[in-house]
Amino acid sequence: MQNTNFLLLKKALEETIPCENPDEISTETQFFGVVQAVLKERLKYPKGSYMNLLYKFIANAGIGQMARGLNQKPRYDSQTNSTRVQPAGALINPLYAGWITSFIRTTLSEIINKYDNSIIISCTTDGFISNCKDLEKITPETNDLFSSLYYNTRAKLTGSGALLETKYVEPKGVIS
Amino acid sequence: MIQPQSGKDLLESLGLEKIIRSYTALKIKFAFPSCVSYPNLPVRLDFNSIIFPLSGETFCTGSEFLLAMRLKCEITVLGGVYIPFQNSQTATERKSGVRVLREIPVVDPNLTELIDVYQSA
Asked: Contact, A95 vs B82, CB < 8 A?
């Protein structure tokens, strides 16, 4: 059943709206330069080192700040040692925040729909639990609009592109 | 503002690049073909739970709409907004980028050329 679905879907994807050339769609916005400069600095330090992780944190922090205080949820505040509704940050922008989260959701959806011949049991924000092998070798095909956009932008920012990365391998899992 | 129309018409009138380089929010009615294993349109049940059904009515963004169209989903747009992003950086934004980067040398004493890298880009 799953294989039939996969073939039908593959056919549907091939017949669908052609994405002429994802390389020509620019994803550069006003934050591109800042993130690029910070990531360039990050690459000077070895992977896993303190400064490398600190620059990763700085580059990632801007995205979080754009959505800060949007959902009006009470959060723990270490200054007052109590929970309170978080106020909006200086970089708050619901449009950019919405765009970023939806882009990642869509890229992930595109990837799991494309590789659904393996079992995927859970998806969270930017990752999934699956029995796929050789994830690092997967590169977007020309018809994959969102994965190509993500892959190209990442290559522009860090100099090397990688679509997927194996974070953890569980040898005794439900689907292993 | 986006008027009620079919998903196909909206895609033809706006085009791929315009939808990606903008914030587009839409209220839609949708039905995926049964061959789609992982439908990508979320439907909110209450404040904390969402499901991804094969058909329903929901709010979504431009990128989600595009992928759904690529998965051969039948979409009727009930309404929405289209807010394009700027194509180039203004002088004020450039200045605020430099201001953000100036804060960083506090954490890295060896850092000197980060702002030069940014300004030369």
From this structure: no
